[in-house]
Amino acid sequence: MTVLLAALFLLVALSGTGVVLTREPRRQVFALAVNGTVLTLLFFALQAPDVALSELAVGTAATPLLFLVTLAAVRISRHR
Amino acid sequence: MNRRWRIALLGLAGICLTPAIWRVATALPRFGEPSEQYGPAVNRLGPALRHVSNMVSAVNFDFRGIDTLGEEFMLLGAITGAVVLLRGARGEDLTAKAARLPGRQVIGRAESTILICRLFSPAIMLFGLYMALHAMVTPGGGFQGGVVIASGLLLTYLGEGYRGWRRLIASPVLAALEGGGALLFALAGLAPMAAGGAFMQNVLPLGTFRDVFSGGLMLVTNAGVGLAVTGGFGMLFLEFLEETRATQSEDTR
Amino acid sequence: MTVLPWFAAAWLFAIGIYGIASSRNLIHLIGCLSVCQSSTYVLLLSVGYRWGAAAPIFYDHPPGTMAVDPVVQALVLTDIVVGATVTALLLAMVLQVGRKYGELDPQKLRPLVARAHR
What is the rounded (10 degree) CA torsion for B125, A73, A18, C103? Predict the structure, then answer.
């Protein structure tokens, strides 16, 4: 359990760094989804199933979609 | 300010704060050995006081219910702000079709995608409803269930395309869900005062432990939160996806 | 292991602030803001954790078994959902900026505003 938790904390720090270092917004959307999944695993290992459910639904479905739609709308308006 | 100056200042602030962060991180209680009293007290006394088994829901909807009321209205405010911003700047000449950029290949939707979305979208909405209703016994609640139902709506968009999705979703229904949920929460707080109790005091019968319908007033507040989150996220998705519509001058088909 | 969560949270916050300060695109900036938010979630949940304890849901195990802190979980739970709506509000604002100025680089935005006032 200790090893699992330590590995998950390091993985979360790594995926957060990945989100920041991915400069292109279209690629950062997928880094955000991966970050959401890794956070869900960490919250599950910390004995917080409610929080894990919340983060899963929000961080992998809702937030990346909003980012993608914003990018699409900006691109459409730039073309006009 | 130049970007380089900004990062240099940030680095300077980081160097100055690192000893403080080190000191605080080593002075906090060791991970896994917390020293607080409130959480264990809730765990010890909560099931007997409120007859629910999900302590997180009990804290959210009863013990710290007024914080959840504030969060609820924060949600309402943020969503209203986003919707007002998006609707105010939109023109009147938009069609009901998605915009197409010239030079981009239009790849049709695969039939397997449509099939999977049609199979799973109602199932996910049902699962979200299950999660929202079983707030008192299993991990779940209004917040989680509401977002899962909204993501089921999103699968419908993926399967049907923009026009088909717009025919299914009506904006006034989502707005009524969102506002109605927040109103239900506020009324659930005010109604006990009319019966002579305190604000949001649990005056309904508490039910038996491990039953789905236990908890008294928590069921009403949970329903309010579920409705508000479903309607709110649905409205957000709707308003954001409407930004991708084609104008009538572009629509030559 | 006893101080790893605190340093993980501090690292996430620091890298998020670095991302915000050095961002070249407003949408990338909002992604870095969500990293800052996730650092608070990690910190709060680590504060409430107890070795060998179960989840604070007394359905399968009887009430009285050792469980983690439910109060911080309630805080983080509502925070995640409300944080997503605040991100949506910020994205709506960025959309308006992108439409009006055609430019999403924070460095290039200010001269545009100054030019409009001349």
Answer: -160
